[in-house]
Amino acid sequence: MTFKKIYFSLFLFFFSINLTFWQLAALGRTAIADQSQKKSLCPNQLGASIDAVIDRPEFTRARWGILVESRSSARNLEKTLYNRDGSKYFIPASNAKLLTTATALQQLGASFRFRTSIYQDADDVLVVRGEGDPSLTDIQLRELAKQLRQRGKTQIKQLILDDSYIQGDIVHSSWEWEDIESDYGAPVGSFILNENTFGLQLLPSTVGNAPRVIWNDPDEASNWRTINQAVTAGANQPTYINISRDLSGNVLHIKGQIAASSPPYLTNLPITEPNRYFLDHLKQALAAEHITVEKTSIVSGGNHQREIAYIESLPLAEMLSYTNHQSDNLYAEAILRALGGNQAQDSNALALEVVKHNLTQLGVVPESYTLFDGSGLSRKDLISPEAIVETLRGMAKTPNAFVYRDSLPLAGKSGTLKNRFQQISTQAIVRAKTGSMTGVSALSGYIESSDYQPLVFSIMVNDVNQPVGIVRQAIDQVVVLLTQLKSCQVELSN
């Protein structure tokens, strides 16, 4: 079992624990921290308190967009508690995943599964059809091969990959080059395997010489030309490595240095040809089951009727939880394309139309956002805090409300919020989606409190020149203020 598979299994285990925690907390039986240390804040004090945080001198050049609304589910009423440029556009980073996952849950359903099938079109001619399952690994390929072996297959005259399900560019045209070079910007298509990445290890050699390069997939090494200009430095020297790829093709440039006493330098890089990568690994899985392949090809389209083997992903509810908890770009992009898949047009463009239609049904004003991708990796994405809040509020009124809410990280407990809000002294439960890229930080989600009405909030910061830790600390301070709200007599009298 691969590390990724083990990690995903452990994630699902802790997700189920957190699910139980949330259900208990909603009933007031579990607290994040000691209630005795809790501070209180009246709603009419909130504005000045938030302003004191975000108007500090270090944020003079930053743009803050904040919208906080209370919502009484019993009376179905909303009330704006704080609004700073809530209707203006901001680069959302991974907060864009809130819109993608909301639409997927509504349109595909919590039980939807990606399916990878093998069809027999003629004697010993097999066709593999992928639906862009982002969770597929070599383990599942071996399962497919075993199914074929159990059917008595020992020879395949022609193995065909049908990549027609996902149409369009495998890498978004608006992504920056440094993102495309990184594992978090891996390509998305009908066939995704091992998250469409491969691993490298750099090991120090003798001082003054180039470090050794070890590929976790030796076959992948043959598809690249490696220019290793890095050196092994003295034992007490710092390690800094830069790996880049030529715009013109599969050429890796390795620069920098690694200390002689340093442990292996590990990195993952995106593959450039997903179909070829998938086909190579499938042939290896078949060979392990003593099934020979004479010829391979890649086509787009065809009428395939006799399915003889298949594998399915986990239900969408669990995949959405992984997507939002880990802020996984590949999962978000694959899930988006599933909304526009199996059509003879660009899957990304079709999916974005589905997102627009779904959000409008939820009550989100179309002019309050503009999306180019599903992950938020594109800097052309522009979303207002208002659009985020309307999405969160709209989803809270649907039958999928709990599935959607539970897909978000739990403050201080899970996902990208595991190491944040560790000292929060309140019974309030915060579930929220993070977002981060250079100059951008965001946090949006739900707050449930025993002392105040449920809240929905969106906080986005753009054009910030401070270290990310300082910005996140300020965002967290704002959220803590929200958790301290309580009903006050002065509010009732108004």
What's the topology here?
Elements: H1 3-26, H2 43-54, E1 63-72, E2 77-84, H3 97-108, E3 115-122, E4 125-129, H4 138-150, E5 155-162, H5 177-180, E6 197-203, E7 212-215, H6 218-221, E8 225-228, E9 231-233, E10 240-245, E11 251-259, E12 265-270, H7 274-288, E13 292-299, E14 307-312, H8 316-326, H9 329-338, H10 347-362, E15 369-370, E16 382-383, H11 385-395, H12 401-406, E17 429-437, E18 440-448, E19 455-462, H13 468-483, H14 489-493
Parallel strand pairs: 4-5, 5-13, 8-11, 9-11
Antiparallel strand pairs: 1-2, 1-19, 3-4, 3-14, 6-7, 6-12, 10-11, 15-16, 17-18, 18-19
Helix pairs in contact: 2-13, 3-8, 3-9, 3-10, 4-7, 8-9, 9-10
Our Rg estimate from Cα atoms comes to 25 Å
Q: Could you give the order of strands across the largest sheet?
A: 2-1-19-18-17
Overall spatial form: globular
Number of helices: 14
Identify the CATH architecture of the largest domain: 3-Layer(aba) Sandwich
CATH fold type of the largest domain: Beta-lactamase
Describe the structure.
A hairpin with a 2-residue loop joins strand 3 (115-122) and strand 4. The strands form 5 sheets. A 5-stranded antiparallel beta sheet has the order 2-1-19-18-17, with helices on both faces. The protein is α+β, with helices and mostly antiparallel strands and 494 residues long. It has helices spanning 3-26, 43-54, 97-108, 138-150, 177-180, 218-221, 274-288, 316-326, 329-338, 347-362, 385-395, 401-406, 468-483, 489-493, and strands at residues 63-72, 77-84, 115-122, 125-129, 155-162, 197-203, 212-215, 225-228, 231-233, 240-245, 251-259, 265-270, 292-299, 307-312, 369-370, 382-383, 429-437, 440-448, 455-462.
